[in-house]
Amino acid sequence: MASKTHTFFYKKLGRHYLGDEPRKTDYHAVATAAHYNSRTKILVVAFSIGAFYLYELPDVNMIHSLSISDYAISVALFNGTGDWVALASRELGQLLVWEWQSEQYIMKQQGHSSEMTCISYSADGQYIATGGEDSKVKLWNTQSGFCFVTFSEHTSGITGIQFSRNKNFLVSCSLDGTVRAFDINRYRNFRTFSSPERVQFSCVAIDHSSEFIVAGCQDVYDMYLWSVKLGRLLEVISGHEGPVCTVAFSPVAAMTTLVSGSWDKTIKVWNCLENNSEHETIDLFADVTCVAYSPSGEHVAAATLNGHITIFDVKSATQICSIEGRNDLAGGRYEADVITGKKNLEGKYFTSIEYSVDGECIIAGGNSQYICIYHAREAVLLKKFEITQNHSLDGLDEYINRRNLTEFGNLALVEKRDELEGGNVAIGLPGVQKGDMASRNIKPKIKVFSVRFMPTGQSYAVACTEGLCLFSLDKGII
């Protein structure tokens, strides 16, 4: 027997202009999100000026309001009881939970507003430190996945970061010409190291005893050595003829060896704590992008711009083996590419490498969507991971759409934009690939900026275009 259909009729009881209040602050404010809790009969309305308002229905009385930022709130949502309201901002990368009755935050999380550039594990693997182009240093808990402290002392992009072995502090270097040491227990910047002249630091390293810090420069081709205890500059180490892009101290307590890599196609082995002028030079066939010490301190691996990873013996400065990894990075094409896939492969290389805890394997990542793990002695590929399947990023598709290549140019370079999408935003200059990407319709290129093994060897972390990704053998960690 067919059920009877009932016709519903709706009647307008009133009209209320909820935008009048936020437009007192900004005339162009528009509502971006709303949610109604039927249990408490409260409506939350969020606006593009970063403020939200709570209204009690059916009388539409405003009972609460708060401004959380200057960016548009993308999502607003009540919990079941209506006591908490969750708010998220897509442009700011912020998520918070607000208890409106007691007027306090239950949770507040915010990631980097731009790309992460470097990461480092603490000695026990409990924390991960990240640095980004937004000049922020953040500490994350590997178990909860939450950021619990943010350091904002730097004024330019972070280029290097490393934990001390005693887990009491971490150091970071920046393009603002400073190297800063942060106390993990008191959450403060207790040391700031600078050079006699204004330089831009590109890499930083701490020795095994956590008493000395060295940082390389990208403009004057020198390295600076400081004492953490004294807080003063000890030596200026010169010898490279190009930007110093990577430095690493020996992980062995009894050794004071320092290895540096540069764009002058050399790596140098220094005994900087004993004799500044004593060093061994190892010539390579391409610019160096990253170096890594083996846990035993006997070998050092160097990644170069030709896609190779070359392993040397530190004492004899002789080559042990070479890994040709360029073909392992193949697989992605950019929409704006006008060259063949074979020619595009010549631009693939590793930007970050590290030895495993046992020294048997090397993990490597670069300007590709793949993470490669190689056997160090046999120089063979053991495993290759794809870090994302997000096709809103550029560089994941193996083939590009040739129909976009018209006689008038590449249609992929033409920005398609709806009217007032994202509000009244200023469009950046053509070809800009950094900055606030939320205000422009672009596809960020997938890249791996840094990769690090957990000290226990059970997981590894990747800083890429997607953010901070953790890969683990233990199912309970993720």
Automatic annotation (TrEMBL):
WD repeats lie at residues 109-150, 151-192, 237-271. The lineage of its organism: Eukaryota, Metazoa, Ecdysozoa, Arthropoda, Hexapoda. It comes from Ceratitis capitata (Mediterranean fruit fly). One of its GO terms (biological process) is ribosomal small subunit assembly. CDD domains: WD40. It comes from the Eukaryota. PROSITE patterns: WD_REPEATS_1, WD_REPEATS_2, WD_REPEATS_REGION. Pfam families: WD40. InterPro entries: PWP2, Quinoprotein_ADH-like_sf, WD40/YVTN_repeat-like_dom_sf, WD40_PAC1, WD40_repeat_CS, WD40_rpt. This is (Mediterranean fruit fly) hypothetical protein. Keywords: Repeat, WD repeat. GO terms for cellular component: Pwp2p-containing subcomplex of 90S preribosome; small-subunit processome.
